[in-house]
Amino acid sequence: MERTLRKRLHASVDTVKTLRTAGYKTLAAREEAAKERRAKQEARLAQGGLAGQKLGKHVVREGEVDVQLGEELTESLRGLQVCAVWLLSSVLHAKGDPVLS
Q1: Among 59, 62, 65, 100, which is least packed, fewest CB within 10 Å?
Q2: How far apart are the C-alpha atoms of 84 and 66, rounded to whole Å?
Q3: Is 89 within 8 Å of 100 (Cβ atoms)?
Q4: Helix H or strand E encompassing 65
Q5: Residues 47 and 85 both lie in one domain
Q6: Does some domain include residue 3?
Q7: Least confident of 22-26, 40-44, 77-81, 96-100
């Protein structure tokens, strides 16, 4: 009886060693895979930025940013001011107020 218990104990010690080495191997493989995924993600971000990626429920749109210089901006603001005055006068005219006629 004691002999069988000792054999079982030695057998379980051997399986523990193999399980430990197998666990270390899978842990190393997981860490390597995570490192590769992280490197791939960083490369994709460096190449194209966030365009096309999903953040929450929204997708970042691709597109060029339209930048206006100071002169172009003042011209467009003057145009907006004229449009706003025209819109205000037409609304007040429709209501019957002759304030800006």
Answers
A1: 65
A2: 23
A3: yes
A4: none
A5: no
A6: yes
A7: 96-100
Q: What residue type is 23 in one-letter code? A: G
Q: Which two tokens stand for residue 43?
A: 């490369």
pLDDT in tens, 10-67: 777 777 788 888 999 999 999 999 999 999 988 888 887 777 778 788 887 777 767 7
Identity of the amino acid at 41: Q
CB-based burial label for 92 (10 Å; 0-12, 13-18, 19+): middle
Cα 4 to chain centroid distance, Å, stands at: 60
**Residue with structure tokens 């992280």?**
38
Domain that holds residue 88: 68-101
Residue with tokens 């003042």: 74
